[in-house]
Amino acid sequence: MISAVLFWFLAVVATAAGIAVFRVDSMARATYALAVSFVAVGVMLLLFNLEYIGVITILMMVMEMAIMGIFMIMFMGMNPALMPMSMVHNKRGSAILAGGVFVGLATAVLLVPWPERRGTPVADLTESLGETIMGSKMLVMLTVSPVLFATLVAAIVLANPRGRYDRFGDDLRRRPPAGPGEGDRR
Amino acid sequence: MVEGLVEVAPGWVVVAAVLLGLMALVGACVDGALTAHSDRRPLLAGAGKPIWETARLLRQRRRVLVASDPLLWRVGGAGLLVVALLMVVVVPLGRWTVADLSVGVAWFNAMDVMVWALVWLTGWGANSAHGLVGGHRFLAQALSYELPLMFALTAPAVAAGSLRVSDVVVAQQGLWFAVWMPVAFLVFCASVLAFSVWGPFSPAAGGDIAGGVLTELSSVDRFLVLAGRYALLAAGAAFAVPMFLGGGSGPFGPEWVWTFLKTVVLLAAFVYVRRLLPVVRPDRLVEAAWVIVLPVVLLQVLLVSLISLGGGL
Questions:
Q1: Where is the signal peptide (chain B) (predicted)?
Q2: What's the distance, CA B119 to chain centroid?
Q3: DSSP 8-class letter at B212
Q4: Which of A99, B60, B292, B296 lies 20 to 30 angstroms, CA to CA, from A40?
Q5: Reduced to 3 states, what is the DSSP secondary structure of residue A51?
């Protein structure tokens, strides 16, 4: 009973915060409304006894929104991000798209013949969920993730305007190197 | 759930809140006494200063700012205390704990990430350039300390083979983790200072930007943020006790006394560090954190993993 009430409360919070993302007139409010929506979803996952996934969802999403907020404000041209602004572009098109997707998904939820539960849930739901999703591809995923990570790091190293060639000189022999900060550049 | 550890009713979270407030007050009083000591004023008057300062702030009229965002500003300021409380609910006090989550360590980590958002919102909401610079500084600093902190928390979890805080305590019955994984312990302590915007990691509230995120705060808002900082320090110190300092284990007496004693000693050390070290600029910290600290703490985790695979110490 209590968990059902909590679930509906969180569902309403998540949806309302999601709507707020497009209704508010400030970048910061839109960003953190999205964060609230994600946190509500994370707490819902806790209700499903997916503790690890729930907590990590909260962690990742708050972190991501904190950084995203800065980027949104930084890259909004002519800086309207610091002034009240509308959060919607192409109003009619996006409304049709969003409405269509919602109706489609909601119909699917109601029409799909959901199977009855067979057997009992396992002790470690997180592990079993991972096995179900990844299964035999676990090894591939484990290999791909370091490769992806290395690609990210390499891209940042190449794009960094204050990398080691700027600081240590073209032959990497300048001693002492120019400092890491903007103010320390030679 | 471990033998002997009791998960108390959720209502006891009120007691946890009171204890956290008390610890935050202890931290503030220690800082007041240390300030009085360096100014050659009477220690006792210095230690009492936080109480008078609280009374002053609570009576002060709120400053009203043009085009501020009061909602985000207040959420940011008041949130620090809430997050500190959410951190301590997973900390066992002797043999009692409010919530012995199966992922208690990850929970603490998620809560400290909340501070990213809260400090930035405090800086943003005031619509002040100094506050905004402070908020951005904090996020820049957070990029430096968060990964080392995560791996510092990984080390005890790997050694205990569990993310449950009570399992980590049980795993330390032979030897405290602080003794055989000192790097992880030190990095954790430094990260606590960092997410509390304290000492060497307080450029977000730096004097060079007129107080940064604290600049425009007045009245009860200022009180909540200042108290929240001490509460975060206290929560970090309290969490270090089950993670690295053997929890409630002690040579004699009840276990809760030892939890308290260790927390207070560590908290006092945290508060004192502010007087020893200069403030580090975030753009300088990032190099030290990623080039030196992160590899070192990763080596620590590797060492701990190998020892755990070999059957432990």
A1: none
A2: 14
A3: G
A4: A99
A5: helix
- Which residues in chain B show pLDDT less than 70? 1-4, 312-313
Using the Cβ of A182 and the Cβ atoms of chain B, whether some distance falls under 8 Å is answered with: yes
Q: Which residue of B has its CA nearest to A31?
A: B117
Chain B hits for A180, CB-CB cut-off 8 Å, are 283-284, 286-287
| B198 contact partners, CB below 8 Å, separation of at least 6 | B229, B233, B270, B273, B274
Cβ atoms of B245 and B176 within 8 Å: the answer is yes
Among chain B residues, the shortest Cα distance to A82 is held by B127
Specify the pLDDT at position A111. Answer: 93
Whether the complex's predicted ipTM is more than 0.90 is answered with: no
Minimal CA separation from B73 to chain A, in Å: 11
- Residue B249: HSE in the Cβ half-sphere, 13 Å Cα cutoff: 17
| Residue A87 φ/ψ, nearest 5 degrees | -100, 5
Is there a contact between B113 and A59 if contact means CB atoms under 8 Å apart?
Answer: yes
Give the separation between CA B244 and CA B185, rounded to whole angstroms. Answer: 7
Kindly determine whether residue B284 and residue A35, on different chains, have CB atoms separated by under 8 Å. Answer: no
d(CA A67, CA B151): 21
Using alpha carbons, list the distances in angstroms from residue A48 to A12, A39, A114, B241: 17, 14, 17, 30
> pLDDT averaged over chain B?
89
CB nearest to B283's CB, from A26, A28, A181: A181
Q: Which residue has the tokens 């957070």?
A: B142
Give the nearest chain B residue to A67 (CA atoms): B139
Given a contact cutoff of 8 angstroms between Cβ atoms, the answer to whether B27 and B192 are in contact is no
Q: Residue B217 half-sphere exposure, CB side, CA atoms within 13 Å?
A: 30
Mutate to test the interface with B, among A48, A62, A124, A164 (most CBs of B within 10 A): A62
Of B31, B141, B122, B109, the residue nearest B75 (C-alpha): B122
pLDDT of residue A83: 67
Is cis: bond before A113, omega within 30 of 0?
no
> Tokens standing for B262?
């260790």
Distance (Å, whole) CA B221 – CA B205: 15
